[in-house]
Each structure stands twice: as structure tokens, then as C-alpha cells.
Design goal:
Elements (H helix, E strand, L loop, with lengths): L13 H10 L13 H5 L5 H10 L1 H21 L4 E9 L20 H12 L2 H11 L10 H4 L5 H11 E5 L5 E8 L2 H59 L10 H32 L6 H4 L2 H23 L5 H92 L5 E5 L12 H26 L8 H6 L3 E6 L2 H15 L9 H5 L8 H4 L4 H14 L10 E5 L7 H14 L4 E5 L7 H4 L8 H6 L9 H4 L1 E2 L5 E4 L8 H6 L1 H13 L2 E5 L8 H8 L2 E7 L5 H14 L3 E9 L10 H11 L1
Parallel strand pairs: 5-12, 6-10, 6-11, 7-9, 7-10, 11-12
Antiparallel strand pairs: 1-3, 1-4, 2-3, 8-9
């Protein structure tokens, strides 16, 4: 595998042996993908993540909410109390006393909405406000109390602008009701102002309506006499012209000559229809056989003759069959038949003569009516020009009469309207001094302050979370790094006390230790040995829980045997975690070897009280075969049963060069055969390559992060380097976590158990 960061010398065969060692691993593990940009940048994937953030910082949110609430209350108490008074007016429809020319009637507006908007503007007009100011003498009033020392009496324009700012007039939907609202620090003064404003508005509207009605009545009266004279003159002209022209009318709109012409024209039409029908019958009588004519076929006499002829012919046929033609009976029937045929011929001739006579009468009637129609049409034509002029004069008379009647009606209405002063404005609710102020609204302001404080706290917490990129609580590493969190090691309070005592002794060696310091100076409070020295402690139990997460895959047969412990930066507690986990493994009967991989700053020999004269660096530097060296000479047994230690040693060679040597591969091969688990405490990996080299030789790497110290950037950088190297990262361990900073994980009962066990 290509690794540009490792300056390997391929000529000495180390790279070949390094790759061959990778092929000799007992199990093949899943390759860890490089972390995505989303996991590196976001960190918040669901609402539950935000809830956890808010829950962790609930004290900050509560403080911000209380601060906002307190600020809102203080600001509300310091503000001047403003009272709002209200009254409502109803604008009724036009009464019988109103005219369409009245200035305040809604009939002169295009829509009712425009009428109501006009009333709103009138209520807010400066002229009306000036009447109210003069009536209440508001300009003469002076401020009272402490305002009298700092304020001066406003002039009229300033006072009007102030009133307009505090005055609100609004419509109520599509109704004819207006609401008048006024705000002022003086509740009684505000009520008096609104009531006076309404009364002045009604009085001014009444006066305007009365003046309008009076002016209308005066104007209508002056023009009524003129209209009456014009009507009389036009009627006289109409009658004189009708008399001199000889026109006769049956009614106001009908002429006698025209009516006669219409009647004659109707009769001519009927005569023409009768003549055409008679002519058709006469022509049919000439061209067709008489017996086929409808008049003969339908004639009652001819029908009777035909019936008698049929009977006689039947008798003649019967007698001829039995008697001879000379027989008297036959002779008598034959005589009756001849006589009947003669009568039928006479009757047929009579019907034909009647048809011809009817046709001649129809022709004569049509001729006479046509002549009369022509004469009457000539007479109507002579009178048409006279009738047109007559109609013109008549229309003038009708128009003058309508105008006169409408003017007379308006004069009567205007007289009634000028005699009375009515108003279409009705006060629904008079303004009353309010008891409670309108502003400031303490409940609303408190709610706004509380909400604003919560919102500000929420923003502060989110910004703080964005700025503070440290891993602080369980689950953070899993969210940011997309790696399983194998366990959480809480903060060891006893170890903190022990470390503080050591620092005090280091800075002040002459200071006598306090009471009980000798006990604390022992290794009993050392954090690396907490699992061994303080077995019922919370640190020990959490270490065992972490061990379970590491060893659980062993049940499937692919568990790691060689594990490297490293951290992104120094001080994250990798040595503490490695020591406690090795002790926990030894407690369950495993044969465990703990290797000091941090050859620059070895500490494990101090923790377990062993010598560092011989160790890992010496084994890697020697050219002797490791297969012949007894295991007891290579490692040192500790006081913990089942736990062996391989210290760093005293060789001063660069660690990276030693780890690249083939001797490291042979050493691990020998140790795999001797021990169940091998834990390597490697140095921090960001600035040093030791952990990356050891990670390629081991079965997996565990990344130790310190709560409140390790940043997400450094952890992501470490994870990225291992992913690029193809090194399996088993997971993370959160070290030195303080449960008090993230409540809700339920360690209270265990603390009680720990205190009881200590007693």
C-alpha cells in the first residue's frame, strides 16, 4: 500500500516484510471509510440532537429566560401607563327628511365603503380637533407633577399632531359602525376628550345637514315659479297649434286620421284575401268537372240527390232482372231517375252561378276599399308635418310638467328638512374611564420577555456549540466521528485530589503534607490503577463496561488480540484508559501484556513500580533472535495477577525507526503466541507517526478522547489519518467525563452503592 508519509527504504527489505506481516494477521477486518464532510461539519442530524444540546444547557436557557422576564417586568414598571378609551358610532340609513343632494348622505357616494372612509377622515380632521381643543381648553392645561419642571405647554399645531397620533378611528368590517379609540395617560381626560369629539362631530354634521337643506329649499323655491311659468306657456302653445292646424286626437298620443288609415288598410287586406279565395274557386269551376268541385260535393242538396239517385238505380236494377223494360213498374222507376237527374243538373248550375257571383262581389269590394285607402293615405300625408310639430310641442309640455312636479316635491322635502335638525349618527357606547392601563401590558410583555430570553438563550447555546467544538458528553464522538463509542470513563475525583497533592508537593517541597496526605500519596488514588485499587468505584465499573464492548466481537471469533491505544492530543488520558482496561482484562482470567509504546515519554514503569532499564526499545534495537529469549526476560510481571508489562526501555533510538524495523514484526509474532491480549500505549498521533505505524501492525486502534478538552477537529483529523492508512479503528472511549455537566444518565444510585461499599 502506498504511504507517502513514511520514508521507507525499499532496498533493505523492510517494506516487503511489513506487507508480509499484514498478510499473516489471523483475521481480516472491515476497512474503515474516511469520514464524510457532512459528519465533519454538521453534527446535528435530528431534533433529538438539538434536544440533548438544550437539555445540557438548560441552566443557561433558564437563566436567559429569567433575565428576559425580569427585564420585561422592569421595563413595564418603568414605562408610563397609557389608558385607552373606546366609543362606537352607528351611521344609519337615509331618512325621509334627507335629500339626495345632502352632503353627508351615503347616497352621494359610489359605495358605502367610500362613505364610511369619508366619515373616518372627518373624525380625524384638524377642524374638528380644533373645536374639541377650544371646548375643553386643552391648550390652557399645564402638566402636573414632575412633568411641569421639564415640559412646556405645547402650541396648537403640536397639540393637534399629538392628538392625531393617539387617536384611532377604524371601521368594523362591512358594517356601518365606526370605533373611536384614544390613548392618554389620564383615563378621565381621555374619556372626556372622546365623548366631546363625538358630540362635536354629531353637532357639526347636524349643522352641515341643516345648512345644506336650507340652501336647497331656498334655491328650489326660487326656481319653482320659473318652472311653473314655463309649463303654462308650453301648454298654451300646444293647444293653439292643435286648434289652428285642425288636428284631432282621440287620446294624448293617437291621431284620428291615422287611426282611420289603419282600419282601412286592415279592411283592404281582408278584401284582397277574400278576392283571391273567390277567384280560386271560380277558376276551379271552369277547369274541373262540376261534380269534382268541393262546393258541389259538400252541398247538402246535392248530397241528398245523390243518395236518392243511388236508391232508384238499385230499384231499377232489381226490377230489370225480373221484368221487361215495357213493364209499368220499370217505366215508372225510369221516369223518376230522369226527373232526379234534371233536378241535379239545375242545382249544379245554381252552385256554379253562386261561385261566379261571389267572385264578382269580392272584386268590387277590393276596388272600393283600395280607392278609399288611397284617399285616406293622402289625407294622413297632408297632416304628418303638422303632427310632427305637434309632438315636439307636446314633448316640451311633458318635460316641463315632470320637472315642475319633481321641483315641487323637493321644495316640500327641503322645507321639512330645514324645519328640523336630525342626525343619522347614533352613539352605541359612550366612552368611560378605564380601570386598567392599555400599555404597558404586563402579562404580554412578560410573555414576550420570557420568549425572547428563551430565544436568545437558544441562539447563544447554538452559537456556543458551534464555536466550542470540544467533545463534551457521551454520544458526541459517535455523532461527529461516525465511530462506535465503546465506553465512557467518568472523572475520578479521588485521582484529582491525589494529583493536586502531588503538584502541591512539587511546588512547595518544604510544606508538610496535611493530615491523611500520606495515605493519598500512595498509589491507591492513582487514576491508572483505579480498577485494581478501588474496585467498587464508578471508574472501575465503567472500565469493565468498556471492556465488554471491546471483547464482545470475540464471541463471533473475530475479536482483536493486539490493540493500540492512542489519542489526538497529549493529556487525553490514553495511558489511564489502557492501564485500567488491562487490569480489567486480567481480572477476567486473561493473560494480558501491556506494552509501553510511548518511547519518548514512558510512564508505565512508574505506574506499576517497575524498572525501565530494559524494555521495548532494547528488544527492537538488538539483533539477537527473539525466539530464543525466554519470555520472562522480555516482560515483567506486575502485582496484578495475569498482567505483564513491557516498559519502554533505555535505548535512545528514534521510536519511528524502531517500529519500522522487521524486529517489531517478529516481536509481536512472539508475543501473540504467549499472551491472550496485547495492549499498546502509543503516543498522541497528530504530531507523531508512532501510533499510525503501530496501528498498521495491530488488529485495531482505540481512540481516547477527553471530555471538554479534545476538539472535534483533532479527533476528525486522527480518524482521517487512520482511514487513509487502512487501519481499523475499533471505536472511541470518552475519558474524564463529569456526569454533573450532563445530568440525566442516572448515576445517583451507583454513587450511593459506592459510598456504602467504602464504609
Amino acid at each position: 500500500m502506498k504511504d507517502p508519509e513514511f520514508p521507507l527504504d525499499k532496498s533493505n527489505g523492510r517494506m516487503t516484510e511489513f506487507h508480509s506481516r499484514a498478510d499473516q494477521r489471523p483475521a481480516v477486518y472491515r476497512h474503515v471509510e474516511s469520514p464524510s464532510a457532512e459528519a465533519a461539519s454538521a453534527g446535528y442530524d435530528s431534533l433529538l440532537d438539538y434536544w440533548h444540546i438544550l437539555f445540557r444547557h438548560r441552566k443557561t436557557l433558564l437563566a436567559c429566560a429569567l433575565a428576559g422576564l425580569l427585564a420585561a417586568i422592569i421595563i413595564s414598571l418603568l414605562q408610563t401607563r397609557i389608558y385607552r378609551v373606546r366609543t362606537s358610532l352607528e351611521f344609519q340609513g337615509a331618512s325621509f327628511l334627507e335629500t339626495k343632494n345632502s352632503s353627508d348622505s351615503s347616497g352621494s357616494y359610489s359605495t358605502p365603503e367610500s362613505y364610511m372612509e369619508t366619515q373616518v377622515k372627518l373624525l380625524q380632521s384638524e377642524s374638528l380637533l380644533e373645536h374639541v381643543i377650544e371646548k375643553l381648553k386643552l391648550q390652557e392645561q399645564r402638566p402636573t407633577g414632575w412633568r411641569a419642571l421639564t415640559s412646556r405647554a405645547p402650541d396648537r399645531d403640536e397639540l393637534i399632531r399629538k392628538i392625531q397620533r393617539n387617536l384611532t378611528v377604524r371601521t368594523s368590517g362591512n358594517s356601518r359602525v365606526l370605533e373611536v379609540l384614544y390613548e392618554s395617560p389620564d383615563p378621565k381626560g381621555a374619556a372626556d376628550f372622546v365623548n366631546t369629539l363625538v358630540s362635536e362631530f354629531i353637532e357639526l354634521s347636524q349643522e352641515a345637514r341643516w345648512k345644506s337643506a336650507e340652501g336647497t329649499a331656498e334655491w328650489l323655491t326660487n326656481h319653482l315659479n320659473i318652472m311653473k311659468a314655463q309649463l303654462e306657456q308650453s301648454e298654451a302653445q300646444l293647444q293653439d297649434y292643435a286648434r289652428t292646424s285642425g288636428l284631432t286626437f282621440t287620446s294624448e298620443k293617437e291621431n284620428l286620421a291615422e287611426n282611420q288609415l289603419k282600419e282601412i288598410q286592415d279592411e283592404v287586406s281582408k278584401a284582397q284575401a277574400d278576392r283571391i279565395a273567390s277567384q280560386a274557386k271560380a277558376e276551379a269551376a271552369k277547369s274541373k268537372p262540376p261534380d269534382s268541385l268541393p262546393e258541389i260535393l259538400e252541398d247538402p242538396t246535392m248530397r241528398e240527390y245523390r243518395q236518392r239517385l243511388t236508391d232508384l238505380q238499385r230499384q231499377y236494377a232489381e226490377l230489370s232482372a225480373a221484368l221487361t223494360p215495357e213493364h209499368p213498374k220499370v217505366q215508372r222507376v225510369q221516369a223518376q231517375i230522369n226527373e232526379l237527374k234534371f233536378e241535379m243538373m239545375n242545382e249544379r248550375n245554381n252552385v256554379l252561378r253562386r261561385i261566379n257571383n261571389e267572385y264578382g262581389a269580392a272584386v268590387r269590394r277590393e276596388t272600393l276599399l283600395s280607392k278609399a285607402h288611397a284617399e285616406q293615405q293622402k289625407l294622413v300625408a297632408d297632416q304628418s308635418e303638422k303632427a310632427i310639430h305637434y309632438d315636439t310641442l307636446k314633448r316640451d309640455v311633458d318635460s316641463n310638467r315632470r320637472l315642475y312636479e319633481a321641483m315641487l316635491q323637493k321644495v316640500k322635502e327641503a322645507s321639512l328638512a330645514s324645519a328640523m335638525r336630525d342626525s343619522n349618527v347614533l352613539v352605541i357606547d359612550r366612552a368611560k374611564p378605564p380601570v386598567l392601563p392599555y400599555r404597558p401590558n404586563l402579562p404580554v410583555n412578560s410573555a414576550i420577555g420570557l420568549f425572547g430570553g428563551v430565544l436568545l438563550g437558544f441562539g447563544f447555546v447554538l452559537v456556543r456549540e458551534r464555536v466550542d467544538r470540544r467533545i463534551s458528553a457521551p454520544g458526541d464522538a459517535q455523532v461527529y466521528l461516525d465511530l462506535p463509542e465503546l465506553g465512557v470513563i467518568p472523572m475520578d475525583e479521588a485521582a484529582i485530589t491525589w494529583q493536586n497533592g502531588k503538584r502541591l508537593q512539587a511546588h512547595h517541597p518544604a510544606t508538610p503534607p496535611p493530615a491523611g496526605a500520606a495515605a493519598r500519596s500512595s498509589l491507591g488514588d492513582c487514576p491508572e490503577l483505579a480498577t485494581w485499587k478501588r474496585k467498587p468505584s464508578l471508574v472501575a465499573e465503567c472500565t469493565r463496561t468498556t471492556l465488554t464492548s471491546i471483547l464482545l466481537p470475540i464471541q463471533n471469533g473475530d475479536g482483536p488480540q493486539v490493540i493500540v491505544f492512542t489519542s489526538p492530543c497529549p493529556g487525553d488520558g490514553k495511558t489511564t484508559v489502557a492501564c485500567n482496561l488491562s487490569i480489567a482484562m486480567a481480572e477476567i482470567g486473561r493473560k494480558v501484556l501491556l506494552i509501553e509504546g510511548d518511547l519518548r515519554r514512558p510512564r508505565l514503569h512508574k505506574v506499576f513500580g517497575a524498572s525501565n532499564s530494559w524494555g521495548l526499545s532494547d528488544l527492537l534495537w538488538t539483533n539477537a533472535s527473539l525466539d530464543t529469549v525466554p519470555i520472562t526476560e522480555m516482560v515483567r510481571e506486575t502485582e496484578v495477577s495475569g498482567l505483564w508489562l513491557l516498559p519502554g526501555g533505555s535505548c535512545g533510538v528514534t521510536p519511528s525507526n524502531l517500529f519500522y524495523s522487521p524486529q517489531m514484526l517478529r516481536l509481536l509474532k512472539r508475543l501473540r503466541a504467549e499472551f491472550d491480549m496485547i495492549l499498546i500505549d502509543a503516543p498522541p498521533m497528530i504530531h507523531l507517526a508512532d501510533a499510525r505505524v503501530l496501528g498498521r501492525l495491530a488488529d485495531g486502534v482505540i481512540l481516547v478522547v477527553r471530555a471538554g478538552q479534545t476538539t472535534t477537529e483533532s479527533a476528525l483529523f486522527a480518524r482521517q489519518r487512520f482511514a487513509e492508512d487502512g487501519t481499523r479503528v475499533l471505536g472511541t472511549v470518552l475519558n474524564s467525563w463529569n456526569p454533573k455537566t450532563t445530568p440525566g444518565y442516572g448515576y445517583g444510585s451507583y454513587r450511593n452503592y459506592q459510598a456504602h461499599a467504602a464504609q
